[in-house]
Amino acid sequence: MYIFPVLNGIWQGFVISILLFGPAFFKLIHTSIQDGFKKGVMLASGVFLSDLLVAILCIFGLAEFMNAPVFQKMYSLSAGVVMLLLGIKYFRHQYRAFLASYTARVPHHKSVFRGFLLNLVNPFTFILWINVMGSISLKYAGEAEFKTLLSINLITILVMLFLMDILKVFLSHLVGRKLNSKIFFIINRYFGVLLIIIGCIFLFRFVTLL
Q1: pLDDT value at position 162?
Q2: Whole domain around residue 97: which residue ranges?
Q3: Measured distance CA(84)–CA(79) in Å, rounded
Q4: Which among 117, 129, 119, 115 has a CA at the least distance from the CA of 46?
């Protein structure tokens, strides 16, 4: 009986991982290429923890609050400003300053924290998990073991997302091993442009919600 929520979770986690593109995704690729496999895994762990937190908040009945227009407006505005500032920082990074930061050893726990924040600062993370929780709740509504089935499905989705992120980290790391510091510098600037675009999207969303 429990095989069905596991299979549902694997499929849902796979689809979400393929379709989801946000600041955390681009940072995951960027970090794995530039800083290696271990830092990428730490970043993926932070993303996993933030997804787990939002899912737990939805379980405890905060989905309605997180889906409220006021919350979405303020979160979109805050996220837009943060993404723009980060994007400008990465884009304006001079080559010498980049080399200094590139050779510096960043503690692993900072990568976890960055992954956690970047995923959490994305307002679409909340929308995603509100919809996921609503969808799987309806799927098992009326079942005698509703809570068990819901939990198995949810845990499977989270684990699948984490495993897919590890796969992205591994593939990005393989690419990164063949690149030099000048290429990393160019990637760094393109990453800045991507964050600026994402910031503009969040700000546009804020305007449309007014």
Answers
A1: 93
A2: 3-209
A3: 8
A4: 115
